[in-house]
Amino acid sequence: MLNFAINDEAIQGLAPIPLLTNNPYIGDMSVMAKSSIPLFNFESQSTKKFCYGCDTEKDVSAFSKHKSKKDGLQTRCIKCGKEYYRVNKVQLKQQMKVYRNHNKETLSAQKKLYSKQPRVKDRINKWRRDRCRNDPMFRLNSNIHKGVSTDLRGVKSRRKWQSLVGYTLKDLKKHLEKQFTEGMSWDNYGEWHVDHKIPLAVHNFLSPEDLDFKRAWALKNLQPLWAHDNSVKHTTIDKPFQPSLAFGGAL
Ligand SMILES: [Zn+2]
Asked: For residue 55, how far is its CA from the centre of ligand 1 (angstroms)?
């Protein structure tokens, strides 16, 4: 959600914005701010509000919400807000970037708090479930992320799984496709799984730097396998396998 607070100051004639002085909208709005055009009056519970963009009185339903405003609404109608954003996209993005850089910790704390709310959690989970159902690449990415995180039990910290295993989602996709057997496709991913040829359970690792982590997650150790075959397989190994005896990739 964009915050137009800086530009609202310009509307009230309080602060000029050097970055945007060439913008025709600003000129118009400063004039309006100084003129005696009546403002939306919250007290009167009016259903109309004046838009500074198109110079028109519109129904309040034509305005987006803005929490910190007296009347709880943006100063421009939705249509003008979009146009304003389109015209000033570069500057606004730059302003937001500066703002984010200056308020990193506060914003991250806010985000954490926000996503902890049960209704937000539910919404994110639902979004993730739907996306997993409809986008096999999202699902694959999510499963590998989960797999790698679970195996490392927190040692992964904030690193991306791609940087730990040394290949990308695209590489993995290609690698699996090459091994598709009859009937396998991304449409029925879920009926087949990504299988570790030499099972994870027999590998010996604590951190992504350990040799066995690399071996367990190496592309050549991954294959698509029908879910049924996978559940039958359990942790049997066809070939003799020697787990790494030392950590830290020393072997
Ligand atoms: Zn408007």
From this structure: 7
